[in-house]
Amino acid sequence: MKAKYDFSKGERGKFYNPKAVFKYPQFLQKDVGQKMRLNNKIAIVTGAGRGIGKAVALRFAEEGAKVVVDDVNDANGAETVAAITEAGGEAMFVNADVSDAADAERLIAEATDAYGTVDILVNNAICSTADVLNNNWEANLAVALRGTSHCSDTVIPVMQQGGGGSIVNVASVNGLIGLQGIHAYSAAKGGVIALTRSMAVAHGKDNIRVNCICPGTIQTEVWEPMIERNPQILDEITPWYPLGRIGHPVDIANAALFLASDEARFATGAVFVIDGGLTAGNHQFPI
Ligand SMILES: NC(=O)c1ccc[n+]([C@@H]2O[C@H](COP(=O)([O-])OP(=O)(O)OC[C@H]3O[C@@H](n4cnc5c(N)ncnc54)[C@H](O)[C@@H]3O)[C@@H](O)[C@H]2O)c1
């Protein structure tokens, strides 16, 4: 079949506008030129004392955000703040249990008292590995699902007043496919995905974007009890990953950075799967 226009000869369709092509709109030029992707933004990261939350907090600070580090572990929370401030960034620690609505309210209040507003909320906290492995329904739902809802519901009016914001929920591949028999965790994470979409639809009009990330296996301290039980576990899991490796917390921090930043201004209700290809298909299917 002959192509309608031979572009190699400079032929164009009737809607071709030479002035419009390859010209960035002003705002994009500005974005691309901006060095700090979260300059002066105020970000709360829950469960930021270690693992993925810590990586997110550090990455956000690196890009100019003032970070409110939330955790129930004082020593770890203080360590994250110290790492940020030692690198020249700005951060504060709040010990708030996100599963408790009053504590979540205090977290948002302390952030707004200190910095005036909140632009970004990352709901990352999770209950203990023991509670995940033992299918503790109460703990999984309370921290992962209700915790996400407590913090989001409280931050929405602050973001509305500030003219918009970005909420990034850390779900899991367990919310998408069946894995490992950790039903309570998987159900809670499936709930986080549904909550993300529901809140995105409700708050688009407020210029508040709500997205979630579904990480595959990420090497954090949560894996320590499982490594103790089976020292080969991460090696055994690796062949499931088409990219040939499991993830690093920074892999998730970079995705959170994109979703939190204005670069993702047209993304809301999105389920951003960052899993090295785990859920792309069954690559071991024998034919
Ligand atoms: N590591 C993985 O392989 C993996 C894979 C998929 C999804 N995820 C998700 O990523 C997120 C972070 O995982 P991680 O591996 O860094 O976990 P982690 O256990 O290392 O970190 C979780 C942090 O949350 C804190 N926390 C626990 N209960 C809390 C509460 N009620 N309020 C506030 N903070 C609380 C803990 O003290 C801890 O510092 C979780 O939502 C997890 O489900 C992790």
Structure description:
With 287 residues, the chain is of the alpha/beta class. The protein is built from ten helices and seven strands. It has helices spanning 26-33, 51-62, 74-86, 101-115, 129-133, 137-161, 183-203, 224-229, 233-237, 249-260; strands spanning 42-45, 66-70, 90-94, 120-123, 165-170, 208-215, 271-274. A seven-stranded parallel β-sheet has the order 3-2-1-4-5-6-7, with helices on both faces. Helix 2 packs across helix 10 (249-260) and helix 6 (137-161) runs parallel beside helix 7 (183-203). The radius of gyration is 21 Å and the shape is globular. The model is unreliable at 20-30 (pLDDT under 50).
Topology:
Blueprint: H1 26-33, E1 42-45, H2 51-62, E2 66-70, H3 74-86, E3 90-94, H4 101-115, E4 120-123, H5 129-133, H6 137-161, E5 165-170, H7 183-203, E6 208-215, H8 224-229, H9 233-237, H10 249-260, E7 271-274
Parallel strand pairs: 1-2, 1-4, 2-3, 4-5, 5-6, 6-7
Helix pairs in contact: 2-10, 4-6, 6-7
The chain binds nicotinamide-adenine-dinucleotide.
H/E topology pattern: HEHEHEHEHHEHEHHHE
Q: Under CATH, the topology is which?
A: Rossmann fold
Unreliable stretches, pLDDT < 50, 5 or more residues?
A: 20-30
Ligands and ions found: nicotinamide-adenine-dinucleotide
Overall pLDDT metric: 91
Tell me the number of structural domains: 1
Q: Which structural category do the helix and sheet elements fall into?
A: alpha/beta
C-alpha Rg (nearest Å)? 21 Å
Task: Tag the structure with descriptive keywords.
binds nicotinamide-adenine-dinucleotide; Rossmann fold; 287 residues; 43% helix; 13% strand; 10 helices; globular; 7-stranded parallel β-sheet; alpha/beta
